[in-house]
């Protein structure tokens, strides 16, 4: 809302525009530059005052070279222009804060201003400013621009998707070999054997809390490469474990490293792809975390049957080393704040102007403050953002159900159907087929629906346009669970439980892709932290669900045991997309983290 301020018989034009938007974390309300949108001059302000109209965003200051003054004095801009500024009390502007504002005279026109200091990545620098931005809308250094070739974007996505694929394979590959591992290490308890499998997923719940925020501090590439190297080392160590305790510790440590692609991948997609391009990219990225756990046991069954269970770890280590090498040569940094920081540092060195800054700079640049702020962000998102909470809980339930099914497949096919380990592991193919078909269906439809809704909304896209596909998938998921459970209990032909498993996995991958894209579209800059928050809950579920699976099936059998899971899925899955469709935009509008 526009307003003109009267003071000392002066009328102040509305060209000095101030925005009231969400303040950047840990950034004080002083040392902020604002732009006169008519005269393109930056003015400085010391803390609160009265807000003017809301059409421009403020730009954080780094080192402007503007001197401070007391009320009633004149301040000169030591960058070369003689701008006259009269510092006045904020009380004169109607502020109840009693802090300092100022009045500026330029070309015979007086201005008075105040504001807050949220980041403004969209803001372009004026001819008199010192903000470093992209050179133009087609700057080839900007990963989102079409000038950053699609080849480079898909190369980055393919490498991250490969990392995201191999880590979940390692998480489940030993499932068919649990009996052999128990025999070698003298494990008597079935729960302890399941813990050997699921402790890897427990690490998935802890690692993203640091991986996602670290990637928002130091960039995607260095964090991804270092954590995957950590995974490679400890995954190899699992193959040399001599006790069950060693195997569990090494599995946990390898899981800490293997969680990086799951936590960072969403941020990379947000960096590279525009909203209307993300559906296809998400379909490829999401396939790894879901298809990996299904393919892993298939491979593990043949490996353990023909060699030894230790080669489950050796083989995944070899593949990880290959992808790691590709990443060293072809994976390029995509995180916009880091790229602009590098550009600022280069320009500071070339021009000698140390007053350059970016829209992402924080006044407090201490490493300890950055780390503290970044580490707290996933907890803040999970604790304060209803969007993240709803999607995280639903995703956690689906992920836990998937790992419960995967962990009990050997019980069903080997013990109940009497198949060998080799042949029984082939049934995991049904889960993989469901994931693949669901991905191929979702990718084109998701983007097509987004474009259609965007066109109907006068060309303005919204994250809520990702929601419609979640509704049919929320029906398909429990249908598959019921089909799988009752056909397994009745010991029908082996194709029948596999059809149910395929229906469940197809519905699950559709929901996952819609949820991941919705979070990335809603929290673009903090997409890595948003994905980290969801990964925490779903990984906890993936760890816990297999532990109670044997007891549940022993008491309820496959029929009623899976019916219980199906009814819960129906109760959670149907309301979630409807609530987000109705209230999602309102929730984003009051969020300090959400885009737009």
UniProtKB/TrEMBL annotation:
InterPro entries: MFS, MFS_dom, MFS_trans_sf. The keyword Glycoprotein does not apply. Residues 1-25, 116-141 are annotated as: Disordered. This is Major facilitator superfamily (MFS) profile domain-containing protein. Residues 1-20, 124-134 have a biased composition (Polar residues). The chain crosses the membrane at residues 154-175, 195-214, 221-242, 248-270, 282-302, 308-331, 386-406, 426-446, 467-486, 492-514, 526-548, 560-583. One of its GO terms (cellular component) is membrane. It comes from the Eukaryota. GO terms for molecular function: transmembrane transporter activity. It is found in: Membrane. Keywords: Membrane, Transmembrane, Transmembrane helix. Residues 156-588 form the Major facilitator superfamily (MFS) profile domain. The keyword tRNA-binding does not apply. It comes from Exserohilum turcicum (strain 28A) (Northern leaf blight fungus). It is a multi-pass membrane protein. CDD domains: MFS_Tpo1_MDR_like.
